[in-house]
Amino acid sequence: MPRRLQLRELTEREKQEIARIANSRTEPIRRVQRAKIIQFMLDDPKLPASVAGRRAGYRSDWPGWAWVKRFNAQGLAGLEDEHRSGHPRVHDETVRSALIDLAIQKPNTLGYPFKLWTLERLQTVFKERHGVHLSDSTIWTWLDEEGLEWKR
User: Fold this and answer.
1) Residue 111 to residue 127: CA distance in whole angstroms
2) Who wins on pLDDT, 3 or 38?
3) What is the pLDDT of residues 55-71, one digit of tens each?
4) CA nearest to 61, candidates 49, 69, 71, 70
5) Buried-state track 51-63, b at ≥16 Cβ within 10 A, e below 16
6) Residue 2 pLDDT > 90, yes or no?
7) What is the 3-state secondary structure (H, E, C) of the chain?
């Protein structure tokens, strides 16, 4: 018969923190759900991790087992989401800095026959100067993140 996964011995501080997180209405739901698995197993030491996971809202047996195993190894930090890489950046910070530098300058001071930037003009001039095409949404996002707004 396979050996059942046991919850390791918790400190009083860990028990208090698990109870706080499991009953929280402000913590992220995934963290609350994971803490509930641990809390259910604290309340009933004979409860299998798979059943605790189902009581916490998971549909299969695997999450209960996986979260208990991770909690046993990492403690409270094991309840957190791990970093995921996501989509790699297309442009580095030098391209972003060059766009911001261009956007904050007046076009006529750079020798252009217009006084204000439009999105299309900024895009065209940037491509001429740096050889990089930036999408409309990238320009909007970067300018917004820098706190720059178009004049209306």
Assistant:
1) 16
2) 38
3) 999 998 888 999 999 99
4) 49
5) bbbbbbebeeeeb
6) no
7) CCCCCCCCCCCHHHHHHHHHHHCCCCCCHHHHHHHHHHHHHHHCCCCCHHHHHHHCCCCCCHHHHHHHHHHHHHHHHHHCCCCCCCCCCCCCHHHHHHHHHHHCCCHHHHCCCCCCCCHHHHHHHHHHHHCCCCCHHHHHHHHHHCCCCCCC
How far apart, in Å, are the Cα atoms of 147 and each of 50, 66, 104, 140, 142?
Answer: 49, 43, 11, 11, 9
Residue type, 49: A
For the stretch 127-132, contacts whose Cβ atoms lie closer than 8 Å and that sit 24 or more positions apart, written own/partner, are 129/98, 129/102, 130/95, 130/98, 132/91, 132/95
- In angstroms, rounded to a whole number, what is the distance separating the alpha carbons of residues 64 and 45? 14
C-beta separation of 116 from 150 below 8 A:
no
Query: Could you give the CA distance from residue 17 to residue 61 in angstroms, rounded to a whole number?
Result: 25
> 27-49 pLDDT, tens per residue?
999 999 999 999 999 999 999 99
Q: Tokens representing 146? A: 């820098």
Which tokens sit at 100?
């911001």
